[in-house]
Amino acid sequence: MAKVKIKRLYLIPILSKALDVLELLENIHAPVSLESVHQTTKISKTSVYRILKTLVHRGYVAQVENGLYRLVSRPRRLRFGFAAQSAEMPFSIAVTQSITAAAAASGVELLILDNQYDPDIAIRNAEECVAKHVDLMLEFQVEEAAAPQIAHIFKKADIPLVAIDVPHPNATYFGVDNFECGYEAGILLAQHALRKWKGTTDWVVGMEFAEAGSFVQSRISGAFDALHERLAEVPEDRFVRIEGRGRRDHSCRAFAEFLKDKPQGQRILIAASTDSSALGVLDAIRPAKREQDCAIAGQDCIPEVLDEMRSGKSAIIGSISHEVESYGRRLVQLGISLLRGNSVPPYNYVHHKAVTPETLSTEAAGAKKA
């Protein structure tokens, strides 16, 4: 069969040139310079510049930090890697659910791996995501010490990295303002002491999460600042920090040990770095029948903590909601913006709010009226 000829008058020259540029980027599979595109395609440098800028604007191409260009939109869907903190941690499970739903709604393919609260596994997961050619990585792992190596793995592969809650070098941060969240938890504890105990407080305990690093640790620093301001009569040596690793079992054992030499009747305020840690403290004080002597404020508003507060009988008197339901939508939007070459802030903070038994009762009453 004779080949059908297409008259030149039906062709759009600049569109043909744009397709030449796209095909070049598709074949190279690596970032290239404007000069290289110009030399290879023989298209004028001005046209190449305008084509590349248009493709960046429309999300087909990204301009990386060193000024090179790479293809990010292909016939297949965008693929994001997501390494979850742990499939056993309630807050991590909620983050995973939020991201999974948002990725599905946006048509983004999601490769999900579990870091299992283990830095060595997190490093192996990073290498697997590189091997599977993800376009962008959402990293949720708690070990600050492992962050530089994980960040290096993705930087070497030229894959944009978004770090969730724990900052990583050269990564875009997404998460809460940890100091402010801690400060609000401290306010809740101080208000409880003033209202219920007339300000009398024997101990202030911060349940720490040292392996997550100073950024997350500032939740405890913020809580202590708020309590120093509002309960000025509590001596400095009555502010103590206990390592709970952000986990229920570790926090339970650590706080039970702390309680051993503390007489019944001593009033204790506890600022926990996570709600899992708050539940661990609760597990320690209930068998000791010390709930009336203790007040706990957590972070994350996981369902079990909300149920404790709704009971009206729990020593958990508040938690700071990190609005986890917003994580997925905002993370997917942030990832797409990065791949399109758009400027994004280095730190992207989520909204947070204090939740107490009183606010839960008000919300429930409002829902009934509605």
Descriptive key words:
alpha/beta; Rossmann fold; 3 domains; six-stranded mixed sheet; elongated
Topology:
Layout: H1 13-28, H2 34-41, H3 45-57, E1 61-63, E2 69-71, E3 79-84, H4 90-106, E4 109-114, H5 119-131, E5 136-139, H6 147-156, E6 161-164, E7 172-175, H7 178-196, E8 203-208, H8 214-230, E9 239-243, H9 248-259, E10 268-272, H10 275-285, E11 294-299, H11 303-311, E12 316-321, H12 327-339, E13 347-349, E14 353-355, H13 357-369
Parallel strand pairs: 3-4, 3-5, 5-6, 6-7, 7-13, 8-9, 8-10, 10-11, 11-12
Antiparallel strand pairs: 1-2, 12-14
Helix pairs in contact: 1-3, 2-3, 4-12, 5-6, 7-8, 9-10
CATH architect. name of the largest domain? 3-Layer(aba) Sandwich
**Strand content of the residues, in percent?**
15-25%
Query: How would you sum up the global shape?
Result: elongated
Average pLDDT value? 91
> What's the CATH H-level superfamily name of the largest domain?
Response regulator
Widest sheet: strand order? 4-3-5-6-7-13
Helix content: 40-55%
Determine Rg (CA atoms, Å): 26 Å
Low-confidence stretches: none
Report the span from N to C terminus: 72 Å
What series of H and E elements makes up the topology? HHHEEEHEHEHEEHEHEHEHEHEHEEH
Biggest sheet details = 6 strands, parallel
The CATH class of the largest domain turns out to be: Alpha Beta
Quaternary class:
single chain
Structural class: alpha/beta
What do these coordinates show?
The protein has helices at 13-28, 34-41, 45-57, 90-106, 119-131, 147-156, 178-196, 214-230, 248-259, 275-285, 303-311, 327-339, 357-369; strands at 61-63, 69-71, 79-84, 109-114, 136-139, 161-164, 172-175, 203-208, 239-243, 268-272, 294-299, 316-321, 347-349, 353-355. With 370 residues, the chain is of the alpha/beta class. The protein folds into three domains: 10-61; 79-176 and 325-351, Rossmann fold (3-Layer(aba) Sandwich); 178-321, Response regulator (Rossmann fold), CATH 3.40.50. A six-stranded parallel beta sheet has the order 4-3-5-6-7-13, sandwiched between helices. The protein has a six-stranded mixed beta sheet with strand order 9-8-10-11-12-14, with helices on both faces. Helix 2 (34-41) crosses helix 3 (45-57), helix 4 packs across helix 12 and helix 9 packs across helix 10 (275-285). The relative contact order is 0.11. The mean pLDDT is 91.
